[in-house]
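Because discrete structure vocabularies remain unfamiliar, we turn briefly to a single example record, giving the amino acid sequence and backbone structure tokens:
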Amino acid sequence: MNTINPDLFAKLMTLPDSARLDLLEFLGATPIGEGQLNDLIENIESSIAAMRSPLQNEPSYS
């Protein structure tokens, strides 16, 4: 059984449910190093932030 660095696990747990579940499923099927896991988490976080940014810049019509 592989273990996950506690700091990386905590970081993983902050992801939205769907992203977290997909990543946990991937980790269960694929051997991966800590550096790669950290990169994956950061890429997911960046993608989520990029998707949210345009929504925050939308003009308000109220």
Observations:
- The helical segments are 6-13, 17-29, 34-56.
